[in-house]
Design brief:
Elements lengths: L3 H5 L3 H8 L4 H11 L2 H9 L14 H8 L2 H9 L14 H8 L2 H9 L14 H8 L2 H9 L14 H8 L2 H9 L10 H8 L2 H8 L26 H8 L2 H9 L14 H7 L3 H9 L14 H8 L2 H9 L14 H8 L2 H9 L14 H8 L2 H9 L14 H7 L3 H9 L14 H8 L2 H9 L14 H7 L3 H9 L14 H8 L2 H9 L14 H8 L2 H9 L14 H8 L2 H9 L14 H7 L3 H9 L14 H8 L2 H9 L14 H8 L2 H9 L14 H7 L3 H9 L14 H7 L3 H9 L14 H8 L2 H9 L14 H8 L2 H8 L25 E4 L8 E3 L10 E3 L29 H12 L12 H6 L32 H4 L28 H8 L5 H8 L25 E5 L62 E6 L5 E6 L16 E6 L4 E5 L6 E4 L8 E7 L24 E2 L8
Parallel strand pairs: 1-3
Antiparallel strand pairs: 1-2, 4-10, 5-6, 5-8, 7-10, 8-9, 9-11
Helix pairs in contact: 3-4, 3-5, 5-6, 5-7, 7-8, 7-9, 9-10, 9-11, 10-12, 11-12, 12-13, 13-14, 13-15, 15-16, 15-17, 17-18, 17-19, 19-20, 19-21, 20-22, 21-22, 21-23, 23-24, 23-25, 24-26, 25-26, 25-27, 27-28, 27-29, 29-30, 29-31, 30-32, 31-32, 31-33, 32-34, 33-34, 33-35, 35-36, 35-37, 36-38, ...
Length: about 1200
C-alpha cells in the first residue's frame, strides 16, 4: 500500500534542487518555507507570482502549510493564493496540513473554502492522511466539516482501515463514532458491534479497563452504555451479529444488562427474531423470563413480532407461556394482535390458556377482532374460546369487530354462535355500535341475522337515534327500510328527529320526515324539533320542518316558542323565517317575556330591529313590569335603546314597583344611556313606589358622573323617599365619599331628617364611615342632632363600637345620653334600595320568588328570568359581570356570586339534546380507546416496537388519531359572564346539577331567606336588626391540597441507529371520575352547603388592612378547592391568609362584617375561612372539614347583635 508521505512528493531534496537555481522565485519559496514573513512580504511587493512553484509543484502555500507557519498562510490567503493549487501528485495545501497534523492551519484552510473531500494521486484524501498519521483532532475536525470516510484509495483502503492498520485507537474511535447515522451518535464500540467489525472491536477492547480518553471506567468499555442505557451487546443482539456478540461476552459483557425500561439483550434479540443470538444469550445464562418496565418478557416480544422460531426456542427452554404484562397481556394476546397464526398455534400447543384476560377483561379473541385478524380468530374459535366473552363495559368480540369495521371477523363470529343481541353495560348492541360508526355492510349483515333495530340502550336510544347522532344518513335509510320505528322515544322522550334537527343535517331531517316522523314531537320538557333548529340557527332545517307542518306556536314547558329561542341566540335568519310563516312577534312566554325582551337582553340588535319591523310592540311588559327599554337601559345597550325610542318606546315606563329605565341606567352608572333617556323626555325626578329617584340610586352607587348629568337636566338635590331619606342620607349610609362631596358642593342639606329623625350624620356614624363623618362636620353638620328616640350620632357609634367615629364625635358633641344597659339592643335603620324579586321559571314555583330577601326591604323590585331547558333555577338578569337585569342592592358580593351561579345555569336546553360525550366513552373497551364516526383505521406495522407502552393496553393496535369530542366545561363556567352559549346542556353539566346536595330552589329559599320576624328584612352591610333568629358566622382555618395525576410512559424503539424515543400515553379517564364532588353541612338541615370556589372564579372584592389600620384595596382569589372541581355556590364564604403580622378583613361596600386578627396570634401562615351557616341556634358543634379548626379567640366581630359560632 502506498503511504500518504510518499504521495506528497515534497521532500527536502526537491527544495534543495530548486535552491541551486538561485532566482527570485526560489528565494521567495525558501523564505515561505522558513517562516520569514518580512522577506515573503518584500518579494510579494515586487513582481513575484504568489502561486509560483518548484519543480514538484510545491508553492508557498504548500510549504508554509507543511511547516505550520500560520501567519504566512493567513497573509497568502488574504492576497489571493490559490487554495486548491495541487502539486504534481495532486496534493493540495489541505492534504499537506492534514498529513502534518497542523489543526490550526487545517481549520483556516477549511474556513477559506478548501475542499475537504479532494482526492490526490492514488485517491488519498486529507482525512485519509490525518488518519494514517494518527492526528485524531484533525480527523474529528474534518469529519465535522463534511469529510467523507467512505472515500477509499485505489487500493480500497478507507481512513478507518489505515487507522486500524496503524493501530491508531483514538482515530478508530473517532471514525466509528462519526459513522453512526440518525439523531443518536453511538460510541465507537457500539458502532463496531453494529457493523460486526471484529478488527475494530478487538482494537477497542485491547485495553478494556480504559475508555478512549484514557480514564478508568466502571465495568469496562465492554459494558459502556449509550444515553439510553444500551450496551454494545444490545446492539449486536439487535443486528444478530454473532461474532461480535461472542467477543463481547468473552470480554465480560453482561448478558442480563438492563437498559432503560429494563430492556435486556434477550428482549432485543427476541424482538428482531435473531434465533441464533437468542440461543447464544440463553447458553450464556440470560434470564429467560426477565421483564421490561411494562412487564414484557422475551416471549411477548417474539410473539408480537411473529418470530415463530424464537417463540419455539423460548418455549422449549421453559419460557412462561402465561406471563402477563402490567395490563395483563399474554404472549397469546400479542400473537393475536399481529395475526401471527404460527406463533399462536405454538403457544396453544404448549397449553397457553385460550381465554386469558387482561385487566380490561380482553381475551385474545377480542384482540384479534379489534385488529381484524381473521385467521387467528378462527384458530382461537376452533380451540373453543368463548365467542361471547365480555370485556370492560361489556363489549364482546362482536361489538369490537363492529366498531372497527371488521366485516370478515363479524361473519366469522356469527358463524361460531356469537350473540347478536349481546349488550354492554350501557345497553349497546352490536347494531348500535355499527350504526353509530356508519359501517353499512356490517349493519346490513346484522339485520340479515335478525338484529333488532329498535332495541333500546339504558338511555332508551335505538340504533336510529345513534345513527342520527353520528350523521350517518345511509345507515338511517337502511334502518328505516328494515322496520326501525321512526319516532322511537329515548329516556327523555327525544326522537331521532330531535337529534337530526340539532345537528343541522337537512338530508337526515328530510329522510325522517318522509318516513313519517312527527314534526311536532315533543320531549319531556316539550321541546319540538323546531325549537332545537331555532336554537342552533339551522334555517334550512327549520324551513323543512315548517314545510312538513311543524307548528311555530308550540311552547316549551317553560312557555317559550321557537321565536323566543331564535331571538335569544341571535339567529336572525330563523327568526325571519318564523315571522314570515306567521309567528306572533309579541307572543309571551312564562313571566310575560316576549321575543323582543329576549333579543334586547342578549343584545341582538339585528333581531330586535327585525321584530320591531314586524310590528312587535316596544311597550309589552313582562310580569314584573319591565319593557324592553328597561333591559336596554340596565345593560347599556345604546343601539337597541335608540332603536326602541325611535319606535316610540315609552322612556317613562314603570315597572311594578315604579322604576323607570332612567332609574336602572342611573344605578348602573351608564352616563350615555342616562343622557339618551333624558333627551327623549324621561322624567329626571321620577319616583318609584318607595320614593326612590334616579339621584338616590346614583348616590347609592357613587355614580358622580350620572349625578352631574341628572343635575344638568334639573334633578333635585334633596328629594325624599317615603321614609324621608335624601340622596345625601343614602350616600352617607353606603360610605360613598365622592358622592357625598358632590352633593355637599351642590348645597345638599346636611340637617335633613328622615321620619325617624336621622340626619346624614346619624347614618354615617351608624355605618362607621369616619371619612364621611369628618366631611359632614366640615360642612356644618350638627353633631348634637337627636333622633326621634333620643340618639345622637355619637351614641350610635358608641353602641356599635366604631372607635374612630367615637373619637371624632366625642370632642364636638355636647348632648349626652344615658348609657344603655346590656339588654338594650340597637336597631339599625337603612334607606330604601331597589330590591328585586326574581320571576322563577321552575316548575314547582308559581310566580315570584324573593331574591336576597334576607337583606332587602319588604317590597322587592321585579327582574325577569328567561328560558332554561330543565333546571328549576331562577334567571336573575343582573349586574355587570352577569350582564343581566338584576339591580344592584345592598347585598354581599358572595350572594351576588351565588345568584350568578344560578343564572349561569339558566337558558339551557336538556342534556339529552346535546351530543353525549359519554357515548364515546361507553364504546371504549380498553383504556385509551376512543370512538368517532370519522375514525380512520391505520394498520400496525409489524416493525413497531414492543418495548414500552405499545402493549400496556391496545392503543397501538388501532393507531387511531381520532378523539372523543367531549365537551369539558371550564372550571369557572358557573361564574363567567352569563354562560348561555351552550343551551343544549351536556351530561357533565346535568350531572353537576344532580350532585348538588339540595335543589337549587332550596339554595335560594334557604340560603337567602329573610332572617327576621314578621317579614322584617336584614341588611348585612348596615348591621342586623336585633332579632334572635340571626345568621351565624363560623370562622375556620382550612388547608387544601391539589392532586395531579401523571400517566406519562416511555418506550424504547430500536432502529438502525438504536435510537431511544419517547412515547407518552394518556389513559382515558372514566367520565364519572371527573364529576364534581360537592360538600355540604348535612348536620344542619337549614344550612347552605359549603361554597367552594375555583381559582378561576370571580375575585371577591374586599378591602384588606393591616392591624395598624392602614388599608389598601385588593382582591382575594379563592383557592381552597382542587382545580378539577366545578364550583357550587350558596350563602356566604370568604377566606383570607394571615401571618404573624396580623390582619383585618372587612366588606368593601357594606362593611358591617369585619374580621380582625391581632399581631403574633397566628404562629404560621393561616387561612381564615368565614362561612354563613344557619339562622337557628346550633345544638351541636359545627362539623369541620379535614384541616379546619374553629378560631380559638376572636378579638372583634361585627355587626353588633349578630350571633357567631365559636
Amino acid at each position: 500500500m502506498s503511504t500518504a508521505e510518499e504521495a506528497t512528493g515534497d521532500s527536502n531534496p526537491d527544495l534543495r534542487e530548486s535552491d541551486e537555481e538561485g532566482d527570485g522565485n526560489n528565494s521567495f519559496l525558501r523564505a515561505a518555507r522558513d517562516g520569514n514573513l518580512e522577506d515573503v512580504l518584500e518579494y510579494l511587493k515586487g513582481s513575484t507570482d504568489i502561486n509560483t512553484s518548484n519543480s514538484n509543484g510545491l508553492n508557498a502555500l504548500h510549504l508554509t502549510s507543511k511547516e505550520g507557519h500560520i501567519k504566512i498562510v493567513e497573509e497568502l490567503l488574504s492576497r489571493g493564493a490559490n487554495i486548491e493549487a495541487a502539486t504534481k501528485k495532486g496534493n493540495t495545501a489541505l492534504h499537506i496540513a492534514s498529513l502534518a497534523g497542523h489543526l490550526n492551519i487545517v481549520s483556516l484552510l477549511v474556513e477559506n473554502k478548501a475542499k475537504v473531500n479532494v482526492q490526490a494521486q492514488f485517491g488519498f484524501t486529507p482525512l485519509y492522511m490525518a488518519a494514517q498519521e494518527g492526528h485524531s483532532e484533525v480527523v474529528k475536525y474534518l469529519l465535522s466539516n463534511g469529510a467523507s470516510q467512505g472515500l477509499a484509495t485505489q487500493d480500497g483502503f478507507t481512513p478507518l482501515a489505515v487507522a486500524l492498520q496503524q493501530g491508531n485507537e483514538r482515530v478508530v474511535s473517532v471514525l466509528l463514532e462519526h459513522d453512526s447515522k440518525g439523531k443518536v451518535k453511538l460510541p465507537a464500540l457500539h458502532i463496531a458491534a453494529k457493523k460486526d467489525d471484529m478488527r475494530s472491536a478487538n482494537l477497542l477492547l485491547q485495553n478494556e479497563q480504559n475508555d478512549v480518553n484514557g480514564e478508568t471506567k466502571d465495568g469496562g468499555l465492554v459494558n459502556d452504555t449509550t444515553k439510553s442505557g444500551f450496551t454494545p451487546l444490545h446492539i449486536a443482539a439487535h443486528y444478530g451479529n454473532i461474532n461480535v456478540a461472542t467477543l463481547l461476552i468473552s470480554k465480560g459483557a453482561d448478558v442480563n444488562f438492563r437498559a432503560k425500561n429494563n430492556i435486556t439483550p434477550l428482549h432485543v434479540a427476541s424482538r428482531w427474531g435473531k434465533d441464533k443470538m437468542v440461543t447464544l444469550l440463553l447458553d450464556n445464562k440470560a434470564v429467560i423470563d426477565e421483564k421490561t418496565r411494562d412487564g414484557l418478557s422475551p416471549l411477548h416480544c417474539s410473539a408480537r413480532s411473529g418470530h415463530e422460531m424464537v417463540v419455539d426456542t423460548l418455549l422449549e427452554r421453559g419460557a412462561p407461556k402465561s406471563s402477563t404484562t402490567k395490563n395483563g397481556l399474554t404472549p397469546l394476546h400479542m400473537a393475536a394482535q399481529g395475526d401471527h397464526m404460527d406463533c399462536a398455534r405454538l403457544l396453544l400447543y404448549h397449553k397457553a390458556p385460550v381465554d386469558d384476560v387482561t385487566v380490561d377483561y380482553l381475551t385474545p379473541l377480542h384482540v384479534a377482532g379489534h385488529c381484524g385478524n381473521v385467521k387467528t380468530a378462527k384458530l382461537l374459535l376452533d380451540r373453543k374460546c368463548n365467542p361471547n366473552a365480555r370485556a370492560l363495559n361489556g363489549f364482546t368480540p362482536l361489538h369490537i369487530a363492529c366498531k372497527k369495521n371488521r366485516i370478515k371477523v363479524v361473519e366469522l363470529l356469527l358463524k361460531y354462535g356469537a350473540s347478536i343481541q349481546a349488550t354492554t353495560e350501557s345497553g349497546l348492541t352490536p347494531l348500535h355500535v355499527a350504526s353509530f360508526m356508519g359501517h353499512m355492510n356490517i349493519v346490513i349483515s346484522l339485520i340479515q341475522n335478525n338484529a333488532s333495530p329498535d332495541h333500546p340502550t339504558v338511555r332508551g336510544e335505538t340504533s336510529l337515534h345513534l345513527a342520527a347522532r353520528a350523521n350517518q344518513t345511509d345507515i338511517i335509510r337502511i334502518l328505516l327500510r328494515n322496520g326501525a320505528t321512526v319516532d322511537a322515544r329515548a329516556r327523555e322522550q327525544q326522537t331521532p328527529l330531535h337529534i337530526a334537527a340539532r345537528l343541522g343535517n337537512v338530508d337526515n331531517v328530510t329522510l325522517l320526515l318522509q318516513h313519517g316522523a312527527n314534526a311536532d314531537a315533543v320531549t319531556k320538557d316539550l321541546y319540538t324539533p323546531l325549537h332545537i333548529a331555532a336554537k342552533e340557527g339551522n334555517e334550512e332545517v327549520a324551513s323543512v320542518l315548517l314545510d312538513h307542518g311543524a307548528s311555530h306556536g308550540l311552547t316549551t314547558k317553560k312557555g317559550f316558542t321557537p321565536l323566543h329561542i331564535a331571538a335569544k341566540y341571535g339567529n336572525i335568519k330563523v327568526a325571519s323565517l318564523l315571522l314570515q310563516k306567521g309567528a306572533n312577534p309579541d307572543v309571551q312566554g312564562k313571566n310575560g317575556l316576549t321575543p323582543l325582551h329576549v333579543a334586547t337582553h342578549y343584545n341582538h340588535s339585528n333581531v330586535a330591529f327585525l321584530l320591531l319591523d314586524h310590528k312587535a310592540s316596544p311597550h309589552c311588559t313582562a310580569k314584573n313590569g319591565y319593557t324592553p327599554l328597561h333591559i336596554a337601559a340596565k345593560k347599556n345597550q345604546m343601539d337597541i335603546a335608540t332603536t326602541l325610542l325611535e319606535f316610540n318606546a315609552d322612556p317613562n315606563a314603570e315597572s311594578k314597583n315604579g322604576f323607570s329605565p332612567l332609574h336602572l341606567a342611573a344605578q348602573e352608572g351608564h352616563t350615555d344611556m342616562v343622557s339618551l333617556l333624558l333627551e327623549h323626555k324621561s322624567n329626571v325626578g321620577a319616583k318609584a313606589h318607595n320614593g326612590l329617584t334616579p339621584m338616590h340610586l346614583a348616590a347609592q352607587e357613587d355614580k358622580v358622573n350620572v349625578a352631574e348629568v341628572l343635575v344638568k337636566y334639573g334633578s333635585e338635590i334633596d328629594p325624599q323617599t317615603k321614609a324621608g331619606y335624601t340622596p345625601l342620607h343614602t350616600s352617607c349610609h353606603f360610605g360613598q365619599i365622592n358622592m357625598v362631596r358632590f352633593l355637599l358642593e351642590h348645597e345638599a342639606s346636611v340637617s335633613a331628617t328622615t321620619k325617624l329623625g336621622y340626619t346624614p350624620l346619624h347614618q354615617a356614624a351608624q355605618q362607621g364611615h369616619v371619612q364621611v363623618v369628618n366631611l359632614l362636620l366640615k360642612n356644618k353638620a350638627s353633631p348634637n342632632a337627636v333622633s326621634n328616640n333620643g340618639q345622637t350620632a355619637l351614641s350610635i357609634a358608641q353602641r356599635l363600637g366604631y372607635i374612630s367615629v367615637v373619637d371624632t364625635l366625642a370632642g364636638v358633641t355636647e348632648v349626652t345620653e344615658t348609657i344603655p344597659t346590656a339588654e338594650d339592643k340597637y336597631k339599625v335603620v337603612s334607606p330604601e334600595t331597589m330590591q328585586e324579586t326574581l320571576l322563577s321559571d321552575s316548575e314547582d314555583e308559581g310566580g315570584y320568588r324573593s331574591v336576597n330577601s334576607s337583606f332587602v326591604g319588604s317590597k322587592g323590585e321585579d327582574t325577569i328570568s328567561l328560558e332554561r331547558g330543565e333546571s328549576s333555577s331562577p334567571l336573575d338578569t343582573s349586574y355587570e359581570g352577569m350582564k343581566e337585569f338584576q339591580f344592584r342592592h345592598p347585598v354581599t358580593d358572595d350572594q351576588r356570586r351565588r345568584i350568578k351561579s344560578e343564572i349561569s345555569t339558566a337558558m339551557r336546553y336538556p342534556s339529552y339534546l346535546q351530543r353525549d360525550p359519554d357515548y364515546e366513552s361507553e364504546m371504549q373497551y380498553f383504556r385509551g380507546d376512543t370512538l368517532s364516526p370519522s375514525s380512520r383505521e391505520k394498520g400496525t406495522s409489524r416493525g413497531d416496537s414492543v418495548f414500552g407502552a405499545d402493549y400496556s393496553t391496545l392503543e397501538r393496535m388501532d393507531q387511531s388519531n381520532s378523539q372523543s369530542d367531549v365537551h369539558i366545561r371550564s372550571v369557572d363556567a358557573s361564574t363567567s359572564e352569563l354562560d348561555f352559549t351552550d343551551d343544549f346542556d351536556d351530561s357533565m353539566k346535568k350531572r353537576e346539577s344532580a350532585t348538588l346536595p339540595f335543589s337549587e330552589d332550596f339554595y335560594l329559599r334557604k340560603s337567602v331567606r329573610a332572617y327576621g320576624k314578621e317579614g322584617v328584612k336584614i341588611y348585612p352591610g348596615s348591621g342586623y336588626k336585633s332579632y334572635p333568629d340571626k345568621p351565624s358566622l363560623s370562622n375556620a382555618v382550612s388547608y387544601s391540597v391539589e392532586g395531579i395525576d401523571l400517566n406519562d410512559q416511555f418506550k424504547f424503539l430500536p432502529d438502525d441507529s438504536v435510537e431511544r424515543r419517547k412515547a407518552s400515553q394518556g389513559s382515558s379517564q372514566d367520565f364519572m371520575e371527573r364529576e364534581v364532588m360537592t360538600q355540604s353541612f348535612a348536620t344542619y338541615s337549614q344550612s347552605a352547603p359549603d361554597t367552594r370556589l375555583s381559582p378561576g372564579a370571580p375575585k371577591k372584592d374586599m378591602k384588606c388592612s393591616s392591624y395598624s389600620g392602614s388599608s389598601f384595596n385588593t382582591s382575594f382569589d379563592p383557592d381552597n378547592v382542587a382545580i378539577e372541581r366545578t364550583p357550587t355556590y350558596s350563602g356566604f364564604l370568604i377566606s383570607f391568609m394571615v401571618d404573624a403580622r396580623g390582619g383585618a378583613l372587612r366588606g368593601r361596600r357594606h362593611s358591617g362584617v369585619r374580621i380582625i386578627i391581632p399581631p403574633r396570634k397566628a404562629s404560621m401562615p393561616t387561612r381564615v375561612t368565614c362561612r354563613l351557616i344557619t339562622k337557628e341556634k346550633l345544638n351541636h358543634p359545627l362539623p369541620l372539614n379535614e384541616g379546619e379548626a374553629l378560631a380559638s379567640r376572636i378579638l372583634e366581630m361585627g355587626p353588633v347583635g349578630t350571633k357567631f359560632l365559636g
